Amino acid sequence: MKKAIISSLIKELQIKIDSGILTKNEKGEYKTSKIFYDCNSRIYARGHNAEELANNLLKAKDKRLNREKTNILLDSRFDSVAVGWYDTMIKGRKLGERNIINHKVLINKHIIEEFGHCRIYDIKNQDLQNFLNAKGEQYSFSQVNKLKHCLEGIFTYAYVNRLIDFNPALSLKMPKCQSFNKESKNPVSKEELTLALKATKNDFQMMLILIMLYIYGLRTIELVNLKWNNINFEKDYIYVEKSKYTDAITTIDNETVSRYLPLSPLVKNLLLQLKETDDPDSENQYIFLTKNSRKPLNTTTLDKYFHTLNRTMEIANGATVFNNKIIEYTNVRHFTPYAFRHGVATRFDSMNYNDAISEQFIGHKPTSVKNKYYSELEFEMNLRGNYDSYMNEVETELQIILTDSLK
Fold first, then answer.
1. pTM
2. C-beta separation of 188 from 149 below 8 A
3. What is the DSSP letter of 370?
4. Considering 160, 184, 314, 357, which has the largest number of Cβ atoms within 10 A of its Cβ?
5. Residue 242 to residue 239: CA distance in whole angstroms
């Protein structure tokens, strides 16, 4: 096959030489160019005769194709494609600021978290549909619909840029979604936490997660990214490294990317028990791991755990179950990790804390530059003492809640 192509190309070039279309330069070489059917751009080559020209054209074409294949492989990671779509179709179109921020959060927190490590051409329609179905069990119709539109946009962008031969997002269907419950944003009450701890009495890690959320109001991305070297058991503090979704898509606005929090005696004791059980090989190992595969916990899996927890709480509260399905619910409110975070903010307000102190504890954007704290020294000198009354109150509350949950 290749010999036939070379032979045909030699004849074509020889005709051009004989007719005077191709002439030699001062070095005695012919220079020509050709567009091949399987190449996107024109190929150039030099040679002293038609045969050398033909061979050099084919060599140059092979090099170009190999280079293009390498570039496609480098650019075909899903997270690269998603960022390309975001930069071109969202930021590039100069949409409203709030719209741009919402898209960034959706992509980072949900989509890249799930598919970021994959090659774009390895993701199938069923993978996307399963992803949407799982989100439908946790979020409202509008939230899942936004995720669907993002996926359709990303894969259309990949198809137009010839990174994939077929768009797997074309036939995605909207799943049945959770009905939005405004109460899910209300603070978690002591009674709800008591019921949740009863439901997790055989799951030590989930119990620890609930307690840490109740005390610190951590974002889910902050919680799952905690490593053992973020916990200082000697000086009794937690170093929270991620306070914003800045993993794949970053903005100039990167305030409050880290903070220090006092280590509660209760949390310290539970963490030491977990560490002894897990026996981590490295201080860099993540604290919270998935139940079966023992891989680092991610936000999507944590959301699924909360969905299961709410179901378990309903059953523990006396819901009617038939064939392992709840057929009659009780009055248990569906709560989320954000409800814990909202509870911490409410508790600080009720104790009349200064805004600068509560902002630093929760990880809100500071209202002024002077309210930022970055170093361990500043935490020890200016902040730890200010947190004492809050920590004493929440620690006392938790001791009562834990006692009630064991009854």
1. 0.57
2. no
3. G
4. 314
5. 9
CA distance 71 to 73: 5
- Within 13 Å of residue 232, how many CA atoms lie on the same side as its CB? 12
Strand partners, 237: 232, 262
- pLDDT at 327 (0 to 100): 65
Exposed/middle/buried for 146, CB within 10 Å: 0-12, 13-18, 19+? middle
What is the reported pLDDT for 242? 60
Beta-carbon neighbour count of residue 85 at 10 Å? 22
**Cα Dmax for the chain:** 100
Nearest to 85 by CA among 299, 253, 298, 248: 248
Residue 240 in contact with residue 356, Cβ under 8 Å?
Answer: no
pLDDT > 60? residue 264? yes
Residue whose entry in the numeric block shows the structure tokens 């010839």: 162
pLDDT of residue 87: 85
Name the nearest CA neighbour of 306 among 297, 294, 293: 297
Is the sign of the CA dihedral 365, 366, 369, 373 positive or negative? negative
Which residues, in sequence order, are CB contacts of 248 under 8 Å at separation 6+?
A: 79, 82, 83, 107, 108, 112, 116
pLDDT band of 108, cuts 50, 70, 90: confident
> b or e along 89-127 (b: 16 or more beta carbons within 10 Å of the residue's beta carbon)?
ebeeeeeeeeebeebbebbbbbbbbbbbeeebbebeeee
The CA-CA-CA angle for residues 169, 298, 96, to 5°, reads 55
What's the residue count for the chain?
A: 407
Average pLDDT over residues 325-337: 70
Give me the sign of the Cα torsion angle 209, 214, 220, 225. Answer: negative
pLDDT for 334-365, tens place per residue? 677 888 888 888 888 888 887 778 878 887 76
Question: 74: part of which helix (H) or strand (E)?
Answer: helix 50-75
Q: CB neighbours (10 Å) of residue 17?
A: 16
**Residue 329 binned pLDDT confidence (cut-offs 50, 70, 90):** low
Give the bridge partners for 27, in sequence order.
Answer: none
Q: What is the mean pLDDT of residues 306-325?
A: 78
Rounded to 10 degrees, the C-alpha dihedral 95/96/102/107 comes to: 20
279 CB neighbour count, 10 Å cutoff = 7
Start-to-end CA distance of the chain, whole Å, equals 81
